[in-house]
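Q: How do we represent a protein-ligand complex in a form that can be generated token by token?
A: Start from the inputs.
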Amino acid sequence: MTLIEQKNLAPQIFEMTLYGKLVKEMEVPGQFLHLRVPSAELLLRRPISLAEIDQTTETCKLIYRVEGKGTDIFSKMKDGDQIDVMGPLGNGFDIGNVKAEETAFIIGGGIGAPPMYELSKELISKGVKVIQLLGFATKNVIFYEEKFKKLGVTRIATDDGTYGMHGHVGHLIDQAIEEFGQPDLVYACGSNGLLKAVDRKFDDHPKAYISMEARMACAVGACYACVVHVKDDETGMSYVKVCDDGPIFETGKLVI
Amino acid sequence: MTLIEQKNLAPQIFEMTLYGKLVKEMEVPGQFLHLRVPSAELLLRRPISLAEIDQTTETCKLIYRVEGKGTDIFSKMKDGDQIDVMGPLGNGFDIGNVKAEETAFIIGGGIGAPPMYELSKELISKGVKVIQLLGFATKNVIFYEEKFKKLGVTRIATDDGTYGMHGHVGHLIDQAIEEFGQPDLVYACGSNGLLKAVDRKFDDHPKAYISMEARMACAVGACYACVVHVKDDETGMSYVKVCDDGPIFETGKLVI
Amino acid sequence: MAENRLKISIPGLNLKNPIMPASGCFGFGTEYAKYFDLNQLGSIMAKATTLEARFGNPTPRVTETSSGMLNAIGLQNPGLEVVLTEKFPALAVAYPELPIVANVAGSTQEDYVEVCAKIGGAPNVKAIELNISCPNVKHGGQMFGTDPKQAYELTKACKSVATVPIYVKLSPNVTDIVEIAKSVEDAGADGLTMINTLMGVRYSLKTRQPILANVTGGLSGPAIKPVALKLIQQVAKETDLPIIGMGGIMTAEDVIEFYLAGASAVAVGTANFTDPLICPKIINALPDCLDFYGIESLEALRDEVKEGFKHA
Amino acid sequence: MAENRLKISIPGLNLKNPIMPASGCFGFGTEYAKYFDLNQLGSIMAKATTLEARFGNPTPRVTETSSGMLNAIGLQNPGLEVVLTEKFPALAVAYPELPIVANVAGSTQEDYVEVCAKIGGAPNVKAIELNISCPNVKHGGQMFGTDPKQAYELTKACKSVATVPIYVKLSPNVTDIVEIAKSVEDAGADGLTMINTLMGVRYSLKTRQPILANVTGGLSGPAIKPVALKLIQQVAKETDLPIIGMGGIMTAEDVIEFYLAGASAVAVGTANFTDPLICPKIINALPDCLDFYGIESLEALRDEVKEGFKHA
Ligand SMILES: Cc1cc2nc3c(=O)[nH]c(=O)nc-3n(C[C@H](O)[C@H](O)[C@H](O)COP(=O)(O)OP(=O)(O)OC[C@H]3O[C@@H](n4cnc5c(N)ncnc54)[C@H](O)[C@@H]3O)c2cc1C
Ligand SMILES: Cc1cc2nc3c(=O)[nH]c(=O)nc-3n(C[C@H](O)[C@H](O)[C@H](O)COP(=O)(O)OP(=O)(O)OC[C@H]3O[C@@H](n4cnc5c(N)ncnc54)[C@H](O)[C@@H]3O)c2cc1C
Ligand SMILES: Cc1cc2nc3c(=O)[nH]c(=O)nc-3n(C[C@H](O)[C@H](O)[C@H](O)COP(=O)(O)O)c2cc1C
Ligand SMILES: Cc1cc2nc3c(=O)[nH]c(=O)nc-3n(C[C@H](O)[C@H](O)[C@H](O)COP(=O)(O)O)c2cc1C
Ligand code: FES
Ligand code: FES
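Then emit the structure tokens for the protein with FE2/S2 (inorganic) cluster bound:
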């Protein structure tokens, strides 16, 4: 695909807009792309979630944080550069049977927030009422606040209290339950801590989903790099693969 | 240094013009630069001879043939790209004590021709009469013909007879000796075969020089990658390093 | 060209080309079927199969290194039964002409023997790759591959029950690989595959701990290519067994380099992760590459190299 | 900061920082003196010295691999006499405060012993690196480094005559490196340096022959970093000897990764060829890197890692 815009949203956080026919196949929020780093030395692709999909312009947006060598190289790519993309991969969020007027908690932590944006947009187009609960480390790494606000209720927490509520997303969730009652739908993406909290809170919620992260190699289910144990499995042999059984899973099912 | 122009001179043969302060240090024809390939996977630099030095514009030109990964990457670099350059390295051609009116055979084979261009220019500025004898594999890989012709007598041979004399440079040399007599000065750069021929023909010529090639790592005399045995050395222990004792050596001295 | 310049015949395997995905890097085959027609491949080296199902090591199981990667999957697989009733049949139905190499691993000699006895029962399994060199499991695996006597015993026991030819997969993590190669040759092995991964570790500066939960992992990719070529040429000069070479192959040129070292066929592992289409790309690039270097056919090249080794 | 966070003390070597160019990659030091002030370095590990002068192997002696290189220099050096009378004194005059590690090699135990007895006579030589792991020579070298008994004998003999501490340089080309490490520890070694190069080969597709005249060469560079880290952590857990780590170091982060594996100091080899200023660049980058990862000092990090290994 062709990189047509690269924006620095916050320190170390970038938004990439990609253009290409592949967008046609991007239909489900929560899916990810597996990007080849344009450096002969780096053999493994990098999984990055779709943050926004626009069929009319055949573009999609990815938001990523510079963590290591690969994302650093991405951040230095320029408009017009080609990028080798596999995907869309993964199951994505199941929004097939959501109903208008249902309430959804959209929970995103830090660099887990991006896929929640496209999800929110699609839920809204189905008439779902979204409550967006976003956690960030500190004020200056917050991104997409305005864009989320345009979609619906948006509450923000920062770990250090520099913006919004002081504390982690768990507090936002508790507050939102008080304010809006139990949600019909729950979707979360973020750090392992955040996922654990959501998993515990919505343990047997029938429509609560979390997006898992894992170190991947193939991203097509062939290498067994990204497996996660299934809960309450006596044999110890049951597993799911984050890359193709996921990255989205129902709460209460996995050993996180 | 900054790449300011990249020209495709012939199939697989490119001319790079570099701009930068380092040019100030480039004073002797026959020296080379040690270029870092902008690819994290390739650790060894590539030695490329200076083909032209222009102090007034602070530029120099290199001419190189795409052989493998490194030169292929060079050929894809664009104007404005930075290139990490070590050098100038090596001794260069000794032209300190040439005299006006002396005759010089300037012998270049294929991709060995580039350093001979700057050498010819500098010899001419000292009043030396240059006879330029250039060999190429075939017509369409000939480059710089016009530029050499502007400097002086230029004879060309091609291995396949598609241009100029049919055969290798050795024949041009024999012909030139017949025509111009024994030269006062001899300078040669090219394939091992060419160097061997020149070395043999001008074995005990007091002012005949050849430019050697060798696989290099450090290019500063530290790694002992580029050594060549010295002739008639009974101990077998005598050697020169192409990178810093050379790349230019007197004929008759080395085991080629 | 009437003649297929890429074809190669080695025990059990009459291949239309020498390119096969390496074991562990291509699952049980079907995972990559949505990317290209698997019939293009010479063969597929399936994921390791053990007698019982295995979950493998804790995660993270992979990490990256310069021109390489570390993996510590730990032989996760659904066990012989499932492989025989589901995995291989799935391939046999969809690709009846595609020969499969089964990769066999175990903790004890008995395990290996039982799997070897049965796995040839799948109609599409044309050869066994005996994995005595997995660096990522505590029991079995590399243990058998670093001791010539154990390698001999295991190979002999497996040969006596196997219904298809056995290629023994050698570990590079040894002082003298020729000794191991000769032992398995003496034990009746039909061929060798080499190399399995080197052992490596990476640390996270943030956590100050190893990145892999298993601490060590197997190093693969172009980083190890020179090591693979070194060991292959060394073994090729000292044994008569055909060698399926692997370790960092990314291009058609790499394939030829492995032939020059004495390989008769090759496997492509890590490169599949970099580019899921790498195998068909290499296959398609090979004819031009042969032309460029003036090579008539891969079989001719193999013979030329073997001849050269004899006279060296 | 009053305290020098980069300083490190190991037998014979009180270093202001742990960065030293690796043996064979920095000549006898003066070659790089025109690029930077050598006083910035912690130490210099000099080129191998043998009793008599050696020419080394035929050329080509180097070639490139993915994220690595192969060399088969073959211990070219002017011999003990010249090294003692010319090479080390040249450094001592220009850099009187700079400690040097002499690298000693030989074909026979007698050779090693004689060089070890005399080389500490140079006033700036503060330690010996006993090279029992050079893969590029037919006699001696790796031979001593792959057999625990020979390694023991040689180390013991050298220790009995040496006037400065001895660090034994281990080969990665072995099945069990801990066994070798323990042997040399028992023999009285003061420390270890690891790793020397892995063995590798590259072929030229044009000539169909190995690129190196010596056929095989030693693989170095970032390609081998995970292997170096693996072997270092394995040995660090099993012996008490300080380890000077090396193998693919290119950045300050790499240095810290070697500390996490259990190294007490590090050497930088191949990277000098990529960038002649790499050593001072790493030294200058280290303080910020320590800050970024919340590390007080390298000595503190080393102690923390060692402590961690004890309780693991
Ligand atoms: C399904 C999925 C979706 C993701 N979506 C996003 C996103 O939208 N935005 C974003 O910033 N990040 C996302 N990540 C995390 C992102 O993949 C890593 O931050 C990135 O791979 C780090 O690469 P690097 O080269 O910068 O780091 P390095 O440390 O140099 O990477 C080395 C290796 O480790 C892997 N790795 C390192 N960190 C992670 C991680 N956290 N998760 C998985 N693999 C990792 C890399 O892929 C690579 O193989 C996602 C991860 C997964 C699994
Ligand atoms: C002093 C000197 C001056 C040179 N001047 C020129 C010049 O002006 N123009 C030009 O086209 N070429 C010149 N060469 C040759 C040039 O250095 C090689 O063609 C080039 O390094 C090949 O790099 P590659 O990445 O394309 O090939 P690869 O085969 O990928 O290179 C792999 C490794 O081998 C080395 N190598 C490969 N071929 C040669 C060779 N012929 N000589 C030395 N090292 C080699 C490379 O430097 C690299 O380390 C010169 C060589 C030397 C020693
Ligand atoms: C993720 C992964 C899993 C592997 N699993 C196996 C395995 O199950 N059995 C086996 O014999 N080799 C296994 N290997 C080793 C490869 O088959 C191959 O020998 C090695 O990776 C070198 O080839 P490459 O550099 O092309 O990857 C695995 C390698 C990787 C990278
Ligand atoms: C060109 C070259 C020459 C070397 N010569 C020696 C040597 O003389 N003695 C020695 O002990 N090691 C020698 N080595 C090995 C290095 O000291 C070092 O152990 C190895 O290269 C790994 O470090 P690196 O990856 O940083 O290069 C040499 C390495 C290279 C690349
Ligand atoms: S990443 Fe390979 S199975 Fe998921
Ligand atoms: S290239 Fe290192 S000594 Fe010449």
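The helical segments of chain B are 69-75, 114-125, 145-151, 169-180, 192-201. Chain B has a mean pLDDT of 96.
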